[in-house]
């Protein structure tokens, strides 16, 4: 049938299971609903901008949108999957769809624009187009043509030329939630008869960082090994360290046992692990430990009892110092020609932090805290106590991840990460505070970019909200 034939003509999982209909797009409900409504009402804009991280369904959605616009079905769901136009789309020979990248020439556009009743151009990586490009000069001309629709696709919305941004209807594609990616991987594994552990699928989802395409690629690479897909196999493929080994290394480093620290670091490096990956993992682990400790303390406070797993103020301060050290060292290791030396030196510095001799009870707390919920960063972190230092560290890393210099300056000089709270569905809500109402309005234009930066730091789905500080200016 329509769906089966479309999925048997290619070899990769991403192509074999590429979405054919709007309802197969994972985790982009708002964007999909908007496009379905536009197709149903035939109220089509000439220019669209699909913005979001890679692997979140932007290009697939553009292809489905093109098929829906040209579908010959008189009523019902579009694309219908059975008409002549849909058949061309499924086979990859749709005359009405042209995919270009940021360096495509305008000559190609002129040549192909008249070949279909409603031509759709999907321009990938449109942020690479130069403001002086002749391609952009054609936009105003095609704006008057009802027979052409442009879908601009980007993973870097801040650097899209103003000539495009100002004309487009923008749809934001966020990172896909873990549940959505996991559900798709489970279905593929069942259909393909993969021998895979459920815990291994969870780990694949975690490493994919909200990208369904990356998750499918990882799963396919593992399946080609011809072995049962387990957590150790995933770790080996991704070049990462298991949580157990990571926690053990952190405990040894912070116990001031220099000899054992050097031995363990050499063992890791000799196994081919990237030191920047280990440092990043350790920083994430510390965030998990601090967040879990706050949850334990909050639960104990509500029940009017003490929790032996809650870390003391001194222990939390030491972990905050360790987080700061790891964050700074990661930058140096990334650019250093002596990465192994930098990595070992960083671990030894952890043992020199104030109060770094780790007692047995402290080690038990670390293990128990991370074991309670490693996937969650925080139920509620606010600006009080040691949470403030953690929020500041997260905010600094977020600013460094921003590609736009204008946004970096705005956040650095005027913004503050006020709180992070956990809501249902694994979504984190981050509140960014500004003292000035006008600056708050400016920051709201960058909500998508701010959320993306926070997601790359916390590796969770983020909803960013801009708020006014209590001491805000009223003018």
UniProtKB/TrEMBL annotation:
GO annotations of cellular component type: DNA polymerase III complex; DNA replication factor C complex
Keywords carried by this UniProt record: Coiled coil
Keyword Signal: no
Annotated DNA polymerase III gamma subunit domain residues: 233-350
GO molecular function term, any single one: DNA-directed DNA polymerase activity
Domain STICHEL DnaA-N-like alpha-beta: 384-467
PANTHER family (alphabetical): PROTEIN STICHEL, REPLICATION FACTOR C / DNA POLYMERASE III GAMMA-TAU SUBUNIT
Protein name (Swiss-Prot/TrEMBL): Uncharacterized protein
Lineage, highest ranks first: Eukaryota, Viridiplantae, Streptophyta, Embryophyta, Tracheophyta
